[in-house]
Design goal:
Blueprint: E1 18-22, H1 29-46, E2 50-53, H2 72-86, E3 90-93, H3 97-104, E4 109-112, H4 120-128, E5 132-136, H5 146-154, E6 161-165, E7 168-169, E8 175-176, H6 181-185, E9 191-194, E10 200-201, E11 210-211, H7 216-225, E12 230-236, E13 250-251, H8 255-271
Parallel strand pairs: 1-2, 1-12, 2-3, 3-4, 4-5, 5-6, 6-9, 9-12, 12-13
Antiparallel strand pairs: 7-8, 10-11
Helix pairs in contact: 1-2, 1-8, 3-4, 4-5, 7-8
């Protein structure tokens, strides 16, 4: 994948990691613009290549009464508004083959959720749009097996593909990150570490996923040290009242300090090459 081919992306010559960040779900226009503006200010200051992330719908929910979105077209239009307002690329996840062409009209990167990354028709549909494809590694998959998912994209005449590690199931209610997977997967695609979903605690009896946001910096630091090309991180100015994944999101007020530390670590890592 060539980072420079992502429309509107900035700071690609800074030798920094790139960042995919934003709220878990698009809850409305005001919140999306507020979060995007804050992250843009920080990433421009630190010269981090940045992509705004927001799900236009949440199809994978534990309970039928869980928040799934504000309406597909409404949320996608907000993603376009963010892109046009701040001149920033955007990424959203898709869940069905029909989502691919629809979402491709509004965003720059199509993300395949971890639970769906083995769905060949979905992966190929995303690849066929010509957009960058971000493949989330299944919680149940080895790093080595992700090569086959990458090949589905490249065999569809699309070389713009990346892989995101979002942790591996450890028992029923915990996730772990096997950092050996980062150099393994870098052999066939750029690798992003999803530091917030990696700290989820799923399958709670309440039907609401828990998390360990206090460990976000620990996981993120380790990801930079082990060579992650990018960092994926969900953030919100009010995680406690976010409509999705609030238990493992980073508070927006803590983002600048964390990214500043990660940039310093990246510079040290680069100096050791």
């Amino acid at each position: 994948m060539n980072l420079d081919l992502i429309p509107q992306i900035k700071h690609t010559k800074s030798d920094n990691f790139f960042l995919l960040s934003g709220p878990c779900a698009i809850e409305g226009e005001e919140m999306a613009l507020r979060i995007a503006e804050k992250i843009m200010t920080i990433t421009n200051k630190l010269e981090i290549p940045y992509v705004f992330k927001g799900s236009f719908k949440k199809a994978n929910r534990s309970r039928v009464d869980s928040f799934t979105g504000i309406g597909d077209e409404k949320a996608l239009k907000i993603l376009r508004k963010v892109s046009e307002t701040f001149n920033v690329p955007t990424v959203t996840d898709i869940h069905e083959v029909s989502d691919a062409s629809m979402a491709a009209e509004y965003v720059d990167i199509l993300q395949i959720p971890a639970f769906l990354v083995r769905q060949t028709d979905l992966v190929v549909a995303a690849a066929n749009t010509g957009k960058v494809v971000n493949l989330k590694k299944g919680q149940f998959m080895s790093p080595e097996s992700m090569k086959h998912a990458v090949t589905k994209v490249t065999d569809s005449n699309n070389q713009q593909v990346m892989v995101t590690d979002r942790g591996t199931m450890f028992g029923y209610q915990d996730m772990i990150v096997d950092f050996r997977g980062i150099p393994t997967m870098k052999e066939f695609a750029p690798v992003v570490l999803d530091v917030t979903h990696s700290l989820q605690q799923p399958n709670q009896s309440s039907g609401v996923t828990g998390g360990r946001p206090d460990m976000i910096e620990t996981i993120a630091r380790a990801g930079i040290v082990t060579g992650a090309d990018g960092i994926f991180m969900e953030t919100h100015f009010d995680p406690a009242n976010a409509k999705s994944d609030g238990a493992n999101m980073l508070h927006l007020d803590h983002l600048e300090k964390l990214l500043t530390n990660l940039v310093a670590i990246r510079k040290t890592v680069n100096s050791l090459k």
